[in-house]
Amino acid sequence: MPTYNLNVNKKNHTVEADENMPLLWVLRDLLDLVGTKFGCGIGQCGACTIHLDGAASRSCLMPVSSVGDAKITTIEGLSEDNSHPVQKAWKEVDVPQCGYCQAGQIMTASAFLEENSSPTKEEVRSAMHGNICRCSAYNRIEEAVNLAAK
Ligand code: FES
């Protein structure tokens, strides 16, 4: 089996994996970073969102062999002590219901705000629309993203 050198949350890891193994399973099963969730496995729900060189990316569709030297950030590496402004806003608004989709939501929101720090409410809605929440906490999700943007 091939080996891959991955930079995850600012640490280097060498993993042995099938070239087609999705990054999601490398993170969860080989590196024990289980904050990133499996939802649909077909790129439709956003639960598996991580940052690849700062851009929100869906890890369920990404073969480990395609990652190369890109820097991977998972929810575990987004901040020290959950102190990222998006995480703080999430707590303040008390966003989660079941919580399952929240890591993906936060990773999408944080990458978006990095690119657009003063978005309109419409831009927030548009940026977040691809992340599905089965509890329909969309109002609180948008409220938290807008709060983090302030
Ligand atoms: Fe990757 Fe749904 S699990 S988009």
UniProtKB/TrEMBL annotation:
SUPFAM superfamilies named among the record's database cross-references: 2Fe-2S ferredoxin-like, CO dehydrogenase ISP C-domain like
Record-linked CDD domains: fer2
Pfam families for the chain: Fer2 (PF00111), Fer2_2 (PF01799)
Superkingdom of origin: Bacteria
Domain (2Fe-2S ferredoxin-type): residue spans on this chain: 2-78
Keywords: 2Fe-2S, Iron, Iron-sulfur, Metal-binding, Oxidoreductase
GO molecular function: 2 iron, 2 sulfur cluster binding; metal ion binding; oxidoreductase activity
PANTHER family hit by this protein: BLR6218 PROTEIN (PTHR44379:SF2), OXIDOREDUCTASE WITH IRON-SULFUR SUBUNIT (PTHR44379)
Protein's name in the database: (2Fe-2S)-binding protein
